[in-house]
Design a protein that fits this description.
Order of helices and strands: EHEEEEEEHHH
Strand order of the largest sheet: 1-7-6-5-4-3-2
Distance between the termini: 43 Å
Number of domains: 1
CATH architecture: 2-Layer Sandwich
Radius of gyration: 19 Å
Number of strands: 7
Structural class: alpha+beta
CATH superfamily: START domain
Strand content: 25-35%
Length: about 220
């Protein structure tokens, strides 16, 4: 079994980082994610939001893997999360539902308010394989390497969504309704004195081709 643990500090408030995390699909850094659907969403007596999502991901086995080791390239992943708006904490756990004999990946991600206007993300994971033929350790090492690369891309995807949230200047109620969560009811207002520009459906959000909005828009635009 292989283990992974890493922490990262965002220079953004917990409410916005948490929102970006839940809105991270689709993004150009997660092209392997084919779909993401909410299975259930409830609230607890203490005011926490519990959400279960089903995610379909596409992957590929290394060239050295035996032919036919898995029946298909797609894998279903279940994501179970809890948002505590009072403790300002998001706990999210994911695990794959199929191909578990070849490789089982269990991941835990926690977002906590940290310091003044910052958010600490802690990611932990375990990778294990029950495959025979003396390949278990090699499969686990391959899975760990892939997981490390995916963590970096996931962070880039969240950062891209954070940039979009800043540029679009969404209001608190709009962002709250995006995931139906009381955890995001308070979003810091913009303090600059420049009047906010309203964009029509035929106008671009920004003229900067290197901006987050331009990059995501060009990625989503049909060829």
């Amino acid at each position: 079994m292989k283990f992974f643990s890493q922490s990262f500090l965002y220079d953004d408030p917990w409410s916005i980082v948490s929102l970006a995390f839940f809105l991270r699909y689709p993004n150009p850094y997660a092209a392997h994610v084919l779909s993401c659907d909410v299975v259930s969403r409830t609230t607890t007596d203490t005011g926490s939001l519990l959400t279960t999502r089903l995610i379909l991901k596409r992957g590929a086995m290394p060239r050295w893997a035996p032919q036919g080791i898995v029946s298909r390239a797609e894998s279903w992943v279940i994501e179970e999360s809890e948002v505590d708006p009072f403790g300002k904490t998001v706990c999210c756990r994911t695990r794959n539902l199929d191909h578990v004999k070849v490789m089982q990946v269990e991941e835990s991600v926690i977002f906590k308010q940290f310091g003044d206007g910052q958010t600490l993300q802690t990611t932990e994971a375990s990778i294990r394989s029950g495959f025979g033929w003396g390949l278990a350790k090699r499969i686990e090492s391959h899975g760990l390497a892939r997981f490390k690369a995916n963590v970096q891309r996931s962070r880039e995807g969240v950062s891209l969504i954070l940039g979009l949230l800043r540029q679009s200047r969404l209001q608190p109620m709009t962002m709250t309704s995006a995931i139906d969560s009381p955890a995001f009811a308070t979003i810091p207002a913009h303090t600059d004195a420049t009047p906010e520009k309203r964009f029509g459906s035929d106008e671009k959000k920004t003229n900067d081709p290197g901006s987050a909005w331009s990059r995501l828009s060009s990625w989503m635009r049909p060829a």
